[in-house]
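Run Putative Zn-dependent protease with MMP-like domain through structure prediction, thanks.
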Amino acid sequence: MVELTRRYFEELVADALDQIPPELAQLMDNVVITVEDESQEGLLGLYEGIPLTERGDSYFGVLPDQIFIYRRNICAICETPEQVVDEVLITVVHEIAHHFGIDDARLTELGWG
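Sure, done. The structure for Putative Zn-dependent protease with MMP-like domain is below.
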């Protein structure tokens, strides 16, 4: 397990977001990304919301989708800080993909499972 401060971990999440191609980042809509300490279910990340592919003409006035990145859960599966950096990127990309309507099976096919 790797111990990282919340502040440093949040910087890693911000760095991962900076790696999202600008043309994709611009398409993200009504979504908030939050670092939480842990998920009781052992999740590394979680997307809650209505994917872009399921939003219709009646989509308006709703609360933002949420992406949670779980600091302690990610740190618990890593042995080095470098592994944390890699896992944060994988988790951020994975959850953003759900925002775009990509399911777990397709993410696994693409190597982001």
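The domain at 6-51+63-110 is CATH 3.30.2010.20 (Zincin-like).
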